Amino acid sequence: MGLWDKHWDMKIIVVIPAYNEAATIRSLAQDVLGLGLDLIVVDDASRDGTSDQLAELQLTLIRHQTNRGKAASLRTGIDAALEAGCDGIVTLDGDGQHRPADIPKLISAFSNNLNSLVIGARLLNREHAPKARRRANDFADFWISWAAGQRIRDSQSGFRLYPAHAAGQVLIDHSRKHGFVYESEFLIEAAHQGLKFQTVPISSYYPRQARASHFRPVVDITRIVLMVAGRLLRSGLNPSGLVEIIWRST
After folding, report:
1. Residue 160 pairs with which residues in a beta bridge?
2. Residue 65 sits in a domain of what CATH number?
3. Is it the case that residue 110 has pLDDT exceeding 70?
4. Which of 91, 149, 182, 229 has the greatest CB tally within 10 Å of its CB?
């Protein structure tokens, strides 16, 4: 088992949602499989031959017949991982910005607290990230932390380890319009259900060959903020949550 000797009693499955990731998906999948982990790739009706790049690799490939968005792709992969029976689910983006070599760090943190959701937070070498993206992420972090009542670093990171029990219990909208809202709302709902969060610092990494990000800072952050505002209003503005994140930030 090598790398996984200390985690032999946990089954971790990796899920990658993919849409037009032909330039990066094969090397990414090979790196994950090289760690000895099971892998599920959800091809969200790519038009660039993404699925073809995975030929002969020992993984589970699920194809959406129509493009349904990131939220639906994540939910499809998560449900498949739960059906396969697992203790935790690692998600990472298909554009190569998350390095599979960092997965052991998330698993190590998770093994110390099985009732936590681990976030691979892009806190190292942040200067490599586009300024607009950093500002948008910081803005989202404040709002999501307030609604969740816990300080969350890099709430927009798709590099996470979800406990299986939380992945099965947190059921929220994963329709197309919730494409980039889903991961943020998951954090809030999970926190309300008693889940804690851990942060594992990782480096910002943007491969040259990767396609342009599907994330639209203005549109998608606006949708996230509207979702959070609605939840805050329904909870009476969660004053204790605001005090918590201000105190944690000082």
Report:
1. 91, 119
2. 3.90.550.10
3. yes
4. 91
- pLDDT of 244: 73
Residue with tokens 């790739």: 41
pTM of the model: 0.88
- The CA distance from 173 to 70, in Å, is 12
142 within domain boundaries: no
Task: Give the mean pLDDT of 185-206.
Answer: 91
Q: Which pLDDT score is estimated for 100?
A: 97
CA distance 113 to 182: 24
DSSP 12-77: EEEEEEESS-TTTHHHHHHHHHTTT-EEEEEE-S-SS-TGGGGTT-SSEEEE-SS---HHHHHHHH
| Alpha-carbon distance values, 21 to 18, 45, 83, 204, 222 (Å) | 6, 11, 25, 19, 26
The total number of residues shown for the chain amounts to: 250
Residue 229 resides in a domain: no
The structural domain count of the chain equals 1
Mean pLDDT within 3-18? 77
Residue 219 lies in a domain: no
The amino acid at residue 12 is I
Instruction: Please give the residue range of the domain that contains residue 40.
Output: 9-128+155-210
